[in-house]
Amino acid sequence: MQVIKSSGVIERFDKKKIYKTIRDAGGSKKLAKEAVNEIRRKFNKNISTRDILLFLIKYLEREPGVSQRYDLKRAIMSLGPSGFPFEKFFARVLEHYGFKTTVGNKLKGKSVYQEVDIIAVNKKKWMIECKYHNESGVITKLHVALYTHARFLDLKSYNFDAAWLVTNTKCSIEAIKYAKGVGLKVTSWKYPNEDNLEKLIEKKGLYPMTILKSISNEVLNKMYDSGFIIAKDLLDYTEYDLSRRIGVDKKIAAKIIEEVKAVCRVSESKKRIRFPFASSSN
User: Fold this and answer.
1) How many helices and strands (H and E) does the chain possess?
2) Which of 195, 196, 186, 233 is nearest to 211 (CA)?
3) 9 pLDDT band (50/70/90 cuts)?
4) Domains in the chain, start-ordered, CATH in brackets?
């Protein structure tokens, strides 16, 4: 059996690869083995990676939270330029790693104003460019790395220590090679091997709100309007406080919290902090 990737490339079906991705998503050995066997039984001709994904998303619901975590790439793709902007999501991820961030900065360069998606400060002051794609198979190419570095050079007077390119898809070989040459930090899907976008999210369970399957788009928009972007942050609220904060029924709030606990692999014994409803910050 052969697999057709989103890029159009055809490769041989790799059961070990499928098994590993399910295990990486927290699936048990039993679930991973059964899922691989079911794919081989159900599909005996060429199959697209999308068809495999759609099958697994449904099949992996046998264990709580696994289906959602396996579908992380789709959840990131669902952030978009509006609603749940990618740059705001990544800024919140950085905050969980101890950075102080500001989003949507407009700074004057030598001749023109430059838009800086994120300014992040830890031991260094970073100028961050976020490149978002909403289609699978699209890569971030050389020109993005070129203009990110050019923007950094134009804003020298703001004393940035380094520039950082962040994207929700893979980067081209040329873009990575150029970035290494000029000292541009790159965080993308699967690159670098450590601290790539996927691993930064999974290390601390910083899944976006769009990973949740139990809530409607209407409720998702209410979440965003209330300042929620990271699903894990909902665990700081009781069902009662969350229902009042976002304006939904308490039963819906309870269902959302239960799904977040499953996705983030939080045990039932974990204590939650009760924040007063009067607080407007998250």
Assistant:
1) 12, 8
2) 233
3) confident
4) 2-64 (no CATH), 77-203 (3.40.1350.10), 212-263 (1.10.150)
